[in-house]
Structure formats: structure tokens, C-alpha cells
Amino acid sequence: MLSPASLSVDLDALAKNFHTLEGLTGRPVQPVVKADAYGLGAEACVTRLMEAGARTFFVARLVEGLALREAMGSTPVIYVLDGCTEGAAMALRDADLRPVINHGEQLARWQEAGGGASGLHIDTGMNRLGFRPEQAPAAFPGLELVISHLACADEPDSPMNRQQRDTFAAVRGRYPGIAASFANSGGCFLGPDFVFDAVRPGISLWGGGPEGRPDPHIRPVATFSAPILQVRPVPVGESVGYARGKVADQPLTVATVGAGYADGVMRATSPKGQVFVAGQLRPILGRISMDALAVDVTGLDVVEGDRVELFGPNRPIDDAARDTGTIAYELLTSVGSRVDRSYTG
Length: 345
Ligand SMILES: *Cc1c(COP(=O)(O)O)cnc(C)c1O
Hints:
There is one protein chain. The protein folds into 2 domains: 11-194, Alpha-Beta Barrel (TIM Barrel), CATH 3.20.20; 222-344, Lyase, Ornithine Decarboxylase, Chain A, domain 1, CATH 2.40.37.10. Helices cover 26% and strands 22% of the residues. It has helices at 11-25, 34-38, 42-51, 62-72, 89-94, 104-112, 159-172, 185-188, 317-324, 328-334; strands at residues 6-10, 56-59, 77-80, 98-101, 118-121, 143-147, 179-181, 222-234, 239-240, 246-247, 252-257, 274-277, 280-285, 293-296, 307-311, 340-344. Strands 1, 8, 11, 12, 13, 14, 15 and 16 form an 8-stranded mixed beta sheet that branches. Strands 2-3-4-5-6-7 form a 6-stranded parallel beta sheet. The chain has a two-stranded antiparallel sheet with strand order 9-10. The two termini are 24 Å apart. Pyridoxal-5'-phosphate (PLP) binds next to loops.
């Protein structure tokens, strides 16, 4: 039977990336597994990461934390980055989830509910979540981890990185004995000043380079592939796909591939997009439709059922993202729900 568009996750490569980041930073790696492990499947990935030695994980939402607790049992420590949102305190406590407290109302809610193990987010310049340094609360019972987040970690030359780092170093001094977590994937590569007590990478565990381009330290983890459904000659002057998106100016052989925007191949990947097929990178032709896309396979020996790689070891996800005008994070988290996830390693 033809297997449809699929996302294959190499769990050995994931474990290797985990150990690479451990070796690079010399710190405990506490993976960020929000958005179902960036679309790769949190349960399978967290299981493998725990085998590799991970104990502490971050999710964004309460519901993600509840699902992870349910799947993984009581062993992992799970922080919820949204924090103690309205109405969440009891659910957090019952599931032994640790809110990362972002503002005064969250702290009040958490403490009213009885408090417990939790984190504290200090905003050192991103202006997204967390207390401004001058408004950060004194250490409170249950506080186990102080975090902040870099706005420009994928640009090592940005002066913002050092500014945020210095602000964080000063503010964490007000929490003696409390562990400090600062570096995301990019931060892990910024040097020893940036690693503090534990690191908090996401994308580079999942195979994205820390600077938004392929990095020799990081192995590809996810392979997004889809089958050729039909191969057809297209004579000069005829067009391919919606809106005559491509008009043949020479005789073409076109493969129609069973992956479209409903599978997470963004429309914006046309006209620059490429796929890896029969040992070569070949251009996507015309518009991406909901369930299909067209590839120029002129001169290649391909047949129905052959697979095309949209990203993976032969088509780095950072390159695919660049040609789509986005970042690896968005490609990974956009892979559609009808795409089968499978695991190797
Ligand atoms: C998503 C996220 C991370 C992980 O960032 P990567 O760039 O994927 O390594 C770390 N910390 C916070 C607060 C985040 O929101």
C-alpha cells in the first residue's frame, strides 16, 4: 500500500543532539518540548530524552503539561511557561506541574492556591513574558528556578545578547541558591558566560541550527517525505497547477506529489521551494495546492510511489525554511495532523 506523506523522527539523532548540547555547555540540558515537541510528538521524544538523561522539561501551555504528565508518569519535572494562568492553579498543583511565574497576579494566584515548586521568569529586554528586573519579587517559598529568554540568540553579533546576559546575571544575584536558566539553542552556542546553571534548548534538539542555518554540530532529526502520485509530460505552452502557476517553456516531466498546504507545505514555499528526489534537489513548480504539489522531474527516472523529501538529511530544514521565507520552527510546527509520525532509532 502506498504510504502517504509522513514525518519520520530519528530518535538516535535527537539523543545525539541532546548529548552535543550537554558537551558544549557542560550543564544539564532541560529540553523545551512545547507544541508537542515542535510537532515531532512529545511522548516519544520525551521518552527518548529521558533515556538519554533528561529529567526536566518545559512546555508552553497547561494542557501540554497535563498531557505530558499523563503520558510520562510522575518522574519528569515539568515547567509550564505560560505560568499560573487564570484558573490554572489547582490543575497545576494536582498534576505536579511547575508554573513559571510571569507577573504579580500569577504569583498571587499561585500562593493563594498554596504555592509549591515553581519558576520565575525575568524579562531582560524581550518584552514578552516575565517581570521587569526592577519589579521582580523577592524569592518566595517553592521557587526553584529563575529564567530569562534571549531575543536575538540566533545572531551571535547582536549587542542585545550581552546586554540581556548582564541584566540576568545581576538580577539572579538576588536569588541566592536558586538555579538560573537562560540559554535557548542559540544561547548554548554563545559561550560559557551564557549557560548559567542549566540550559533550555528547543530547536537544536529537533535538528534546527542555532543560527537559522544548517550547523555541523546539529544532526537532522525530522524527515518530511511524500509519495509521487503521478508522473506526466507537460508540453511547451501548457501550464501546471492553479492559476497557471508554471507555464512550460520547454518540454517538462512533472511529478505530482501527495503533500500540500493541508500537510504543512506552506504556499509560500513556491516559487523558491525545492525537494530532494532521486538523488537531486529539484524545483517545486507553480502553486502548492491543498493536497498536492508539482515537482520538475525532467530527465529523472521516477515512478509513482517514489518518495520526495521536503526536509530531512538531504534537504536541511533551515534551507527549506529560508526558501519559504520562514524559520525551521514554523515548518516543524506546521506539519499537518493527517501526516503520520513514525520513529526510528
Ligand atoms: C521556545 C522557548 C525556548 C526554546 O527556544 P529554542 O530557540 O527553540 O531553543 C526556550 N525558552 C523559552 C522561554 C521559550 O519560549
